[in-house]
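Exercise 3.2. Students should predict the tertiary structure of the chain below and write it as structure tokens, then compare their answer with the key that follows.

Predict this chain's 3D structure.
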Amino acid sequence: MTGATAEGTGVDVEREGGDGGAKETFKDLFAGAAGGVAQVLIGQPFDIIKVRLQTTTRYTGAVDAATKIFKDEGPLAFYKGTLTPLVGIGACVSVQFGGFHYARRQFEARNTLHNRPAPLSYTQLYASGAFAGLANSVLSGPIEHVRIRLQTQPHGAGRLYSGPLDCVRKLGAHEGIMRGLFRGQAVTLLREAQAYGCWFLTFEYLMNRHARVNSTPRSSISAPLIALYGGIAGEALWLASYPFDVVKSKMQSDGFGTEMRYGSMRA
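Answer key:
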């Protein structure tokens, strides 16, 4: 999952006016994309262990999986399927950012129209994050499907795909673009909505609480604390969405035709 970044998620309105707002938006998107690249490079070894544990019973645990992957496939195996999310991370961050702030502005306008305080309630923050997740799922669904296929294919001479483009071509040849490349999209929608709804809700709550308890503006919160609150929000994201992620991984690593075990997320 391409995670949200702590930068550019606040609900301050003054940053969005005029040229200054455009510059801030560009800075936020650039910082988010750079953070996303770092996230992919750092997190990919952990992700392949997660996917292997979700999709096979070969391993007794995370340490056993890491040991066997290193021994049987070599250290570069931990970066199988990295290219696809690495290329798509910038677009995903842009969609997350744009989706969240679009929904936020709609809620602010609605609150003003009904003579309520413009700042969003926590329910509205969750809904804005969920909207960002739904928008992001259009990209993250196929990107992660290709990554999972590359992560779970046999090693060596028995491998099924030579790379991301070959994987896309063969998935489309099996069942067409929609049923092939977008397999598991329904559960991806649920996962992304729950994940980013919880991420933005948790992050905004922690930021607002810090500002209230310390009687300081949000803009004065230090970068290390922002990173800490983003990390805590990330924990909330995974705890809330992990069951959906397991179902998604099983569907997106499943066989085709008579070898298919999971015809839908309810299977």
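Discussion points: The CA atoms of residues 33 and 93 lie 6 Å apart. The first helix runs from residue 18 to 55.
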